[in-house]
Write a structure and sequence with these properties.
364 residues; alpha/beta; Rossmann fold; Dihydrodipicolinate Reductase, domain 2; 2 domains; six-stranded parallel beta sheet
């Protein structure tokens, strides 16, 4: 496997720091460029993040002396890397323009941002659930006029704790889902120290999250269809999802309490078997970041717990528990995932690994 030179746009933020940490010992990807806003440019990475490093370990040695670049210096960065990960803190319009600029300079973008999630020919991928959506890249390249440049995105972090659990049940006819997500402070790019209003508090609103939780799964479960000028995803019509998103005083880890209805009756044991046996394409290909297993179930009624279970399989696994009958729908359960690993940087890195395996990403 040829090694890839990669860049991280938005490398000084919380998700950017997670990218830098996860790339430290990656067998395929070598971090060559860290980039951020113009105000951070020109400093070493160590100097830029020294007073706001939020990761549990030290700043990776290989990244410390890298000079932070201005992410808007597209031409220069594109000459130095095979592709970039994007985690910038910009408006959606600014992010969309920046990602398109890199793609048009033949530098693919694997993005953690939401700017392109609704773009019809941009694949939004959970690698275990809809790897086939990578096929949209060829249509997108035709639209952009590129040979190798494209944008691929990962979905919102709040989905990762429950959409993967519903995925192996879809042939049972999942029709309705009611979900409440309890989301960590790092999802807002903050800590307990930098978010004092969360001390001894729960906030029952996170702007834009409920809409993402209700709409993005339908694109993930959609089908590729042809239309005039190319291909796009036709969103699935079911299930209908009702979401409530709550911010809780937890550092990392998004939890979901889920109830769902199915058309074809299935026993609790059958659902548990489907979860325990499920393996997606990343697991079958043995990709470096693929958790083995992806889904796990804990029989203890007091699990999963955020502090105990968010780091399952290096933060890339999804931990499920409390599957039981629901008096209104059919079943209910609790799910947990690490929001800045599986839900953000780790999920994007796994997506890039999948795109390498599928030959959509190749060295320049």
């Amino acid at each position: 496997m040829a090694r890839f030179s990669v860049g991280v746009l938005g490398a000084t933020g919380m998700v950017g720091q997670r990218f830098v940490t996860l790339l430290e010992a990656h067998p395929w990807f070598s971090l060559k460029v860290v980039a951020a806003s113009a105000k951070s440019a020109g400093k070493t990475y160590e100097a830029s993040v020294a007073d706001r490093w939020t990761m549990p370990g030290a700043i990776p040695h290989a990244a410390r002396a890298l000079v932070v670049r201005d992410a808007s210096d597209v031409d220069a960065i594109a000459r130095e890397v095979d592709f970039v990960f994007c985690a910038v803190d910009m408006t959606k319009d600014e992010t969309r323009a920046l990602e398109d600029a890199y793609a048009k300079r033949e530098t693919p973008v694997v993005s953690n941002n939401s700017a392109h999630r609704a773009t019809p020919d941009v694949p939004m991928i959970i690698p275990e659930c809809n790897p086939e959506h990578a096929a949209l890249i060829e249509s997108q390249r035709r639209r952009l006029g590129t040979k190798r440049g494209f944008v691929a995105v990962k979905p919102n972090c709040s989905l990762q704790s429950y959409v993967p659990a519903l995925h192996p049940l879809r042939d049972l006819g999942v029709t309705r889902v009611v979900v409440a997500t309890y989301q960590a402070l790092s999802g807002a790019g903050k800590t307990l120290a930098t978010y004092p209003e969360m001390n001894d508090n729960v906030i029952p609103f996170i702007g834009g999250e409920e809409e993402k939780s209700e709409q993005e799964p339908l694109k993930i479960w959609g089908t590729i269809e042809s239309h005039e000028g190319g291909e796009r995803v036709a969103p699935a019509r079911a299930p209908i999802i009702s979401a409530t998103c709550v911010r809780v005083p937890v550092s990392d880890g998004h939890m979901a309490a889920v109830a769902f209805a199915i058309e074809k009756k299935a026993s609790r044991d059958e659902i548990l078997a489907r979860w325990r046996e499920f393996a997606g394409k990343p697991q079958k290909l043995g990709l470096p970041s693929a958790p083995q297993p992806f889904l796990s179930y804990d029989d203890d009624d007091a699990r999963p717990q955020t502090r105990l279970d968010r780091d399952a399989r290096k933060g890339m696994g999804v931990v499920l528990g409390r599957l039981r009958a629901d008096p209104v729908l059919d079943y209910r359960f609790v799910g947990l995932s690490h929001n800045t690993v599986r839900g953000a940087a780790g999920g994007a890195i796994l997506t890039a690994e999948l795109l390498v395996a599928e030959k959509y990403l190749e060295p320049k």
